[in-house]
């Protein structure tokens, strides 16, 4: 394919959520797959709905997922995005051109009139429930009057009254619309800002966008866009409308299904690799069995042929599972580096602050069980906390008296004081020997030791954990456990 240019064109009207960013991902993958360019454009022409801080969150989301963009309004990188509110002159010039050519007209209808019209249309079940074209036919004298009075106005596009607007959608195939059902929509608002339709079409043309890949909810805007392209004398790009994302109950995805702002996933301890993999499968698939596929592989195999038409189901369980897969795939050092900010957040409650290297030493023990990075502080805490809190009764294994448990732990303490080599293998060997001497089962002795050294009944493999804790801490903790038992 020649000269692929795609864009991600979010409106900063709310925190970017997974559905929005999936559009960015598909565009980025498409550009990377075919050696094209990926452009980011902030569509902020609806000033009333713009929310502060959202542009930063959009860019932060893209950076987190490493969806880098290739150009911007400045000549050199690192590029900012294109921002529509900084391009108003372009939209005004095109509006004037459309008015002069008879493809657009000034509309002086008041808000009250438009409200009345909407009500009446609704009451009559009008087939075309939009604007009635009232200002299409104002006389030159009317227009002069209104202009002289500086009456606020919008500019509307003249939609054809007949015929059909047709699209061959790259994903949905043939789609057509009856023009008679589409009204003369606003292209320039009374505040001087263009509407989404006008700015979007002009910018896609000026930025030489070859493929518009966007969510299905925009499909109904496409006939308007195609008509605008025609009136402006521009060749339209190709369009592909991506399938909706649905909750497990097949209704439109919402917060109720656990779909929150994308950056909340980062803060909840999800890896960006897992997020990319998960989102890529929301509407696209390589085949019917591949679940785990890296960003690099995706960028080599992604294509629109495997984008489905029907809604993609969002499943948080699958995401959690996938996150675990990516966590297990990281080198312990790297995992420690990523988990460190989460552990650090909890440092005030730990008696000893671990450094990243120390965290890296214990990571291999936790890696199997971590589902998110957020689990790390709790799972790792007993390595760094000396004041373990647990109930002394947990130290007494089933089928054993309290005294017997205390003397088994004393025995373990003695053994460990004299143990030369504090490796997991040596620990296991000597403690197994001890079970024979004490005539207790491995399950009993190791269970008591697990609680004494970690404060928990379930923890990563005991001997490796003890090795990582080191002799001194193990001895201290076992000693304390004996005291707890003896105290009553
Ligand atoms: N500004 C629109 C949005 O917020 C862009 C739609 C499109 O890609 O054309 O999603």
Per-chain topology:
Elements: E1 5-8, H1 18-33, E2 37-42, H2 54-64, E3 82-83, H3 88-100, E4 104-107, H4 111-123, H5 140-148, E5 154-157, E6 164-169, E7 173-178, E8 186-188, H6 196-206, E9 211-215, H7 222-232, E10 238-242, E11 245-246, H8 262-267, H9 272-280, H10 295-301, E12 312-313, H11 316-329, H12 332-345, H13 356-366, H14 375-384, H15 402-418, H16 424-438, H17 442-454, H18 462-469, H19 471-486
Parallel strand pairs: 1-2, 2-3, 9-10, 11-12
Antiparallel strand pairs: 4-5, 5-8, 6-7
Bound molecules: glutamic acid.
Glutamic acid binds at residues 9-11, 43, 196, 200, 214, 218.
Structure explained in plain terms:
- α1 (18-33) links the parallel β1 and β2 (37-42).
- Helix content is 46%, strand content 10%.
- The protein folds into 4 domains: 5-86 and 246-313, Rossmann fold (3-Layer(aba) Sandwich); 88-242, HUPs (Rossmann fold), CATH 3.40.50; 332-383; 392-486, Arc Repressor Mutant, subunit A, CATH 1.10.10.
- By secondary structure, it is mostly helical.
- The longest helix has 17 residues, at 402-418.
- The model has no long low-confidence stretch (mean pLDDT 93).
- The N and C termini lie far apart (79 Å).
- Strands 1-2-3 form a 3-stranded parallel beta sheet.
- It is built from 19 helices and 12 strands.
- α12 (332-345) packs across α13 (356-366) and α17 (442-454) packs across α19 (471-486).
- Glutamic acid binds next to α6.
């Amino acid at each position: 394919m020649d000269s692929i240019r795609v864009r991600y064109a979010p409106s900063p009207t709310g925190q970017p959520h997974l559905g929005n960013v999936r559009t960015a991902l598909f565009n980025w993958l498409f550009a990377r797959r075919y050696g094209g360019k990926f452009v980011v454009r902030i569509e902020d022409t609806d000033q009333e709905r713009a929310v502060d801080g959202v542009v930063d969150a959009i860019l932060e989301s893209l950076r987190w997922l490493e969806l880098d963009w290739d150009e911007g309004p400045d000549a050199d990188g690192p590029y900012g995005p294109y921002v529509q509110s900084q391009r108003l002159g372009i939209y005004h010039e095109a509006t004037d051109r459309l008015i002069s050519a008879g493809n657009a007209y000034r509309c002086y209808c008041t808000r009250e009139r438009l409200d009345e019209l909407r009500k009446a249309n609704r009451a009559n079940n009008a087939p075309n429930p939009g604007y009635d074209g009232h200002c299409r036919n104002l006389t030159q004298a009317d227009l002069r009057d209104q202009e002289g009075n500086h009456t606020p106005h919008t500019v509307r596009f003249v939609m054809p009254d007949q015929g059909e607007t047709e699209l061959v959608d790259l994903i949905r195939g043939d789609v057509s619309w009856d023009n008679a059902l589409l009204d003369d929509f606003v292209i320039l608002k009374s505040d001087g800002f263009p509407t989404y339709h006008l700015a979007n079409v002009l910018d896609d043309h000026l930025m030489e966008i070859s493929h518009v890949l966007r969510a299905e909810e925009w499909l109904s805007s496409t006939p308007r866009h195609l008509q605008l392209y025609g009136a402006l004398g521009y060749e339209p790009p190709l369009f592909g409308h991506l399938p909706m994302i649905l909750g497990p109950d097949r209704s439109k995805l919402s917060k109720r299904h656990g779909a929150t702002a994308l950056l909340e996933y980062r803060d909840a301890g999800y890896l960006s690799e897992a997020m990319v993999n998960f989102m890529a499968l929301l509407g696209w698939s390589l085949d019917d069995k591949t679940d785990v596929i890296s960003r690099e592989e995706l960028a080599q195999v992604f294509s629109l042929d495997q984008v489905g038409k029907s809604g993609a189901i969002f499943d948080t369980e699958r995401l959690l599972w996938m996150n675990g897969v990516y966590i297990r795939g990281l080198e312990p050092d790297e995992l420690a580096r990523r988990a460190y900010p989460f552990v650090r957040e909890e440092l005030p409650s730990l008696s000893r602050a671990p450094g990243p290297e120390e965290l890296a030493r214990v990571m291999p023990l936790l890696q199997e069980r971590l589902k998110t990075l957020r689990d790390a502080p709790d799972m790792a805490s007993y390595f760094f906390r000396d004041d373990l809190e647990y109930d002394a009764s947990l130290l007494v294994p089933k089928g054993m008296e309290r005294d017997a448990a205390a003397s088994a732990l004393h025995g373990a303490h003695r053994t460990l004081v004299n143990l030369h080599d504090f490796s997991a293998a040596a620990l296991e060997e000597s403690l197994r020997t001890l079970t024979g001497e004490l005539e207790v089962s491995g399950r009993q002795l190791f269970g008591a030791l697990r609680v004494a050294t970690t404060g928990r009944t379930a923890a990563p493999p005991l001997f490796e954990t003890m090795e990582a804790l080191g002799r001194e801490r193990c001895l201290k903790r076992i000693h304390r456990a004996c005291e707890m038992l003896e105290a009553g």
